[in-house]
């Protein structure tokens, strides 16, 4: 028998008096976050919201949920939840109490399907979501100004990606609740805990309920922190319902317990923390209300439950699809409420109950006319033998062979009968698997021997798959020298190749590029699992041939003779610049290195065999040298010819005064005599050229004593013979007062023309100085200018 202290838990309940007509009185609830499991970051978000059942509650159809980062409260996402299920009435064990207190509560379910990006939700501190609403019940006795106090549903969850890996997690799950009351000075306990779908550890503690941000009817998603409700004096999270003991929760099981010593409606909250491997990964808050009433001293009824037509027992078993009738003691003064697995069943308030679902059943009774103690019957357990099973086939009947294994639900207390096309198939009765090799319509009958339950599976049609046709396709059946031949297997989804009767284990693709002659077959497996082997496909090797082409001699310039081309074997084709038929003309080809080919087509499947030669038409070199170079005694200089035709060898003669006669640029060192140098060059083809240069050596400059700058075209400037040999020469001319009237600044590139700043100087004698080199002695003399 259940303890007599089961009285009065109203969770998520509001007092009927002192309530404004338009208020949507929040009774309680929580948020749940379920991983759907198909795509990382795909979740179903559910808000379970318990409301006082009135017109205003009917207008509540959802709202906004915000997701925020715990570290800095940054907003990540805002989405809307809408109603996803039919509202369910919270069933009270003692309807007389519910009626007398004008209590009607419904459970509303709001939800949304969301997709979160794991790469975006990777902060180690985790995230939280909240759903905010308003209007608690004005009759709440443990918080300040309850009617103007809001409600925040709150859930924390971990990062979706840790160390580059997706972190799978769902929040805890909670069962529906019964509508009950607490009786003053009566011990009360309630299974308030949940379960975790990931097997994580859950830890429970009492906390202060959360208010909402802001005031008024604003229900927009806003970030935390969220304010606590304001306790009245003497109340706290751990003293939400005064008593001996006060309301408390077991940290491991979530079991609530209290022996209240004060009447009233009391709000409280429980924090459910989620731990994995000793590390907290999330939490959810559940916010509720208990109503404590003064239960009259009524003697509790003592009901008994039995099954109609069966001997007294507490354990019953029926076959699926059958019904068992439970009944209890009949008393016209009693109020009845049936339960399954501790949860009140809607509309189950009679003395008889038809049951067909497995579970633990009991009935709670109380006096119809008084809100007093309710007491429960003994528990009756119902088991349902469910033989529901579909035929599960594996294998395939192929065109001429193959088999299929049919299996159904197994069990040591089951027997089986197998049928093909309505006829019994001989098979041991204990075998739940049948292997068949013939097509037909199969079914099985399962029988549970102890209770005589039977089940007929649906019929399953087994047919033969179409014959598999294995074929090898190829554009040809011969392999060209040095090439491969692709063979394509057709007719299946997987392939096994053989060459000359031996498996080729390394090739499982539909295309096999063969490089060796032989006989090939392919075994193909169709999607049905059926196999077939192709007809042999013979591949031959085409022998290689050797193609040669005689070399073409190089020529200098384009005026060489026409050359006859030859190659083996005969019958091929010549091609390339300057080629016409079997003739090669360097003039037509032009200067350059030309690739000439000889191609022989030896098999229609294969590309031509080709030999090639390079025909060189080399340019004839040219040498550009000055006719004469002037220098001074003992000077070093470089003779740099301008060359064309790509010469590669150089020979200067005579080698006198040359640092290296084989260099392209001749380096003349400390020359003392006039020289005539000859340069001979040759390119890689052997084409040659020759050039000469005269080097004149001056020991000093010849200085004339007079000149006539009279614009007659003769001796109009003071010409210094051999001055070119002295590029650093300094020439200065003075008048009779010692003033400089001319000075060279660039050697003697601009000779003295008898003017000073463009004005002719008077005729007469002028003194000059000449310094050949910076370190040479100064030469002095007199110059006569005549006009």
From TrEMBL:
Keyword Hydrolase: no
Domain of life of the organism encoding this protein: Bacteria
Alphabetized Pfam families for the sequence: CHU_C
Signal among keywords: yes
Keywords tagged on the record: Signal
InterPro entries: Ig-like_fold, T9SS_type_B
Secretion signal, residue range per the UniProt entry: 1-23
NCBIfam families reported in the protein's UniProt record: Bac_Flav_CTERM (TIGR04131)
Protein name, per record: T9SS type B sorting domain-containing protein
Organism: Larkinella humicola
């Amino acid at each position: 028998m259940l303890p007599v202290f089961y009285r009065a838990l109203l969770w998520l309940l509001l007092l009927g008096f002192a309530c404004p007509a338009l208020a949507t009185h929040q009774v309680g609830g929580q948020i749940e976050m379920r991983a759907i499991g198909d795509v990382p970051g795909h979740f179903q978000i559910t808000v379970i919201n318990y409301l006082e059942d009135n017109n205003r509650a009917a207008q509540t159809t959802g709202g906004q949920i915000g997701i925020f980062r715990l570290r800095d409260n940054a907003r990540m996402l805002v989405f809307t939840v809408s109603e996803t299920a039919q509202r369910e009435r919270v069933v009270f064990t003692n309807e007389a109490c519910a009626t007398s207190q004008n209590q009607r509560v419904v459970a509303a379910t709001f939800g949304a399907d969301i997709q979160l990006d794991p790469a975006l939700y990777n902060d180690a501190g985790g995230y939280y979501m909240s759903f905010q609403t308003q209007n608690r019940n004005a009759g709440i006795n443990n918080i300040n100004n309850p009617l103007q106090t809001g409600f925040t549903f709150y859930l924390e969850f971990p990062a979706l990606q840790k160390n580059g890996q997706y972190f799978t997690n769902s929040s805890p799950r909670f069962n529906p609740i019964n509508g009950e009351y607490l009786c003053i000075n009566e011990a009360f306990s309630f299974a308030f805990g949940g379960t975790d779908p990931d097997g994580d550890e859950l830890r429970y503690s009492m906390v202060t309920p959360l208010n909402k941000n802001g005031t008024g009817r604003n229900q927009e998603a806003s970030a935390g922190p969220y304010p606590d409700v304001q306790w009245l004096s003497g109340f706290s999270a751990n003293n939400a319902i005064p008593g001996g003991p006060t309301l408390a929760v077991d940290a491991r099981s979530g079991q609530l317990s209290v022996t209240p010593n004060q009447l009233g409606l009391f709000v409280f909250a429980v924090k459910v923390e989620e731990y994995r491997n000793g590390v907290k990964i999330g939490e959810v808050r559940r916010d509720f209300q208990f109503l404590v009433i003064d239960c009259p001293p009524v003697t509790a009824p003592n009901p008994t439950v039995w099954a109609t037509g069966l001997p007294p027992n507490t354990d019953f078993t029926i076959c699926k699809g059958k019904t068992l009738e439970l009944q209890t003691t009949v008393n016209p003064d009693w109020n009845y409420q049936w339960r399954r697995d501790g949860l009140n069943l809607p509309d189950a308030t009679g003395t008889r109950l038809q049951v067909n679902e497995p579970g633990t059943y009991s009935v709670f009774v109380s006096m119809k006319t008084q809100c007093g103690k309710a007491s429960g019957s003994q528990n009756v357990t119902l088991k349902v033998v469910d033989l529901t099973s579909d035929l599960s086939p594996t294998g395939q009947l192929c065109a001429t062979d193959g088999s299929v294994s049919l299996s159904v639900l197994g069990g040591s207390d089951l027997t089986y009968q197998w049928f093909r096309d309505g006829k019994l198939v001989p098979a041991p009765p204990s075998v739940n698997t049948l292997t068949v090799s013939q097509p037909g319509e199969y079914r099985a009958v399962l029988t549970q021997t102890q209770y005589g339950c039977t089940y007929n599976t649906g019929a399953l049609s087994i047919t033969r798959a179409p014959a598999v046709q294995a074929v090898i396709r190829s554009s040809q059946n011969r392999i060209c020298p040095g090439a491969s031949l692709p063979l394509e297997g057709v007719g299946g989804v997987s392939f096994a190749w053989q060459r000359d009767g031996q498996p080729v284990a390394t090739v499982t693709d539909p295309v096999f590029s063969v490089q060796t002659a032989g006989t090939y077959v392919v075994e193909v497996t169709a999607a049905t699992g059926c196999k077939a082997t192709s007809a042999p496909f013979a591949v031959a090797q085409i022998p290689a041939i050797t193609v040669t082409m005689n070399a073409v001699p190089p020529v200098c310039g384009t005026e060489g003779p026409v050359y006859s081309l030859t190659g083996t074997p005969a019958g091929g084709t010549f091609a390339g610049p300057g080629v016409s038929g079997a003739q090669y003309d360097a003039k037509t080809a032009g200067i350059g290195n030309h690739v000439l080919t000889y191609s022989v087509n030896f098999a229609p499947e294969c590309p031509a065999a080709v030999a090639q030669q390079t025909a060189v038409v080399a340019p004839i070199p040219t040498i550009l040298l000055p006719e004469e170079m002037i220098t001074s005694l003992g000077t070093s200089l470089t003779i740099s010819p301008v060359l064309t035709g790509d010469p590669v060898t150089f020979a200067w003669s005579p080698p006198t005064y040359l640092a290296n006669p084989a260099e392209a640029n001749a380096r003349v060192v400390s020359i003392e005599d006039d020289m005539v140098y000859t340069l001979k060059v040759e390119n890689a083809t052997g084409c040659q050229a020759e050039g000469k240069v005269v080097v004149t050596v001056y020991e000093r400059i010849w200085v004339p004593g007079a000149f006539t700058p009279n614009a007659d075209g003769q001796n109009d400037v003071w010409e210094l013979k051999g001055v070119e040999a002295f590029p650093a020469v300094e020439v200065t001319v003075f008048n009779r007062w010692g003033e400089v009237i001319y000075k060279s600044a660039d050697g003697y590139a601009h000779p003295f023309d008898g003017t000073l700043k463009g004005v002719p100087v008077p005729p007469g004698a002028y003194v000059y100085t000449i310094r050949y080199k910076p370190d040479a002695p100064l030469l002095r003399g007199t110059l006569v200018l005549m006009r």
